[in-house]
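From the pipeline queue, job 12 of 40. The input is one protein chain; the requested action is below.

Action: predict structure.
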Amino acid sequence: MTRTTVALDDKLYRALKLKSAVSSRPLSEIVSDAVRMSLREDALDLAAFDERKSERARPFEDILAELKRDGLI
């Protein structure tokens, strides 16, 4: 395991300390789990992009016009 220093906003740090106390989990475990989850989400996003790379792109303006036409915005 590698040790590192992370700069956190004071309020975020207090919230993490509270979560650590309430859950009886070390702060480093909570942060590691959050980073792991974020990286997993990135991997899923990249896989989804890869699966859809052969699809035709639609201009944002076309999608926006369609939403307006359908009364959704």
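Job complete. Residues 27-51 form the longest helix (25 residues).
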